[in-house]
Amino acid sequence: MRIGVLREIKDNEYRVGLVPSSVHELVTHHHQVVVEHAAGEGVGCPDEAYRAAGASIAATAEAVFEQAEMLVKVKEPQPNERRRLRPGQVLFTYLHLAPDPVQTKELIQSGAVCIGYETVTSPRGGLPLLAPMSEIAGRMAIQAGAYCLEEAHGGMGILLGGVPGVEPAEVVILGGGVVGTNAAEIALGFGADVLLLDRSTEVLSSLWRQFGPRLKTVFSTRHAVTQHLLNADLVIGAVLIPGAAAPKLVSAELIRRMKAGAVVVDVSIDQGGCFETSRPTTHASPTYVVDGVVHYCVANMPGGVPRTSTAALNNATLPHVLTLADKGYRAAMLDDPHLRAGLNVHRGEVTCKAVAEALDYPYRDPLEVLQR
After folding, report:
1. Is 96 annotated as catalytic?
2. Cα–Cα distance between 208 and 303 in angstroms, integer?
3. Do 2-120+306-370 and 131-304 come out as alike in CATH topology?
């Protein structure tokens, strides 16, 4: 199979879909890999490293699109990339379609086969291709929140961990999944006073066993969310419904009642965000203020640490890239229901139920469309 690697063009996105060691694995399996010029420079992988791994270098993105049977990316294709997709071409990347009707419509129109990292599942449960970026985003959320709490960056001017004789910041985390767990670990390490809300008693029990009484856990209700956000200095939105738009847990009215200079970090923004006042931002302009509350809503948070996140992402995605290339996408997904769960759009049809429901498209069972 001919596999293409593009230079990411989303604002301040430096990650790359395949690193040279991943390319070498594919070449060893007798596949051809074409890499756009300078695709890996942001993570310290020059063209020479890709050539040494067995790839060819294309001068332009257009050349990659023309040659590749499968494209391996990081972020969702941007408008000019979507226009270059062709019927039957395989796209393997993060998509996050539920809150993005324009992208979904254009991917349907392209006729491409679009597989989203974020909905691939695992035999052990969970979302294995989303998990490494969620780990990084959860850790970065506390780092970003601590920065935003500084007076010079719009916050109320408090130190997350306090000092002897001065209370630490109150951190509230909404959601106890991968993002929330990693955010809790870092916030506790900073010395903050940390409280986490979740609707699963199993999750809360697991977190209690992991962190002990240092982490305060609360069963999430509307009343509990309101009560604790009014006292919060930093709130981390870490809610996920696989493939679907994130629920709006925090109303604009509640934001209005929060402390002036408080900070919210919406890690759920890729799926639409869990605060009513959230809108996507970039690393170049990461924050804005609503009713005195600083909002950090960067839609590609792990892109801020591209070397770490590219390595972690390749570790997770490479086995699936090899499977898709070795077997062809149709056989690969027919053989593996967990990889098949990643199929979001197939030749003009929506094959992810959560996306179909969110955007009011007819849903087509992926097993049925693959067997045609």
Report:
1. yes
2. 31
3. yes
As assigned by CATH, the class of the 2-120+306-370 domain is alpha beta
Q: What end-to-end distance do the CA atoms of the chain give, in Å?
A: 22
- Contacts with 70 (C-beta within 8 Å, 6 or more apart), sequence order: 1, 2, 3, 4, 89, 90, 91, 92, 321, 324, 325, 329
Residue linked to tokens 């230079």: 7
CA 21, CA 19: separation in Å to the nearest integer? 6
Q: Tens digits of per-residue pLDDT, 103-120? A: 999 999 999 999 999 999
Inter-residue contact 42 to 16 (CB < 8 Å) = yes
Q: Which CATH class is domain 131-304?
A: alpha beta
pLDDT 10s digits, 149-173:
999 999 999 999 999 999 999 999 9
Contact of 282 with 11, CB cutoff 8 Å: yes
pLDDT for 292 equals: 98
Q: What are the counts of helices (DSSP H) followed by strands (DSSP E) for the chain?
A: 15, 15
Instruction: Centre a 10 Å sphere on the Cβ of residue 372 and count the other Cβ atoms it contains.
Output: 8
Q: Which of 233, 270, 320, 346 is catalytic?
A: 270
Domain ranges of the chain: 2-120+306-370, 131-304
Q: Which of 24, 96, 228, 295 is catalytic?
A: 96
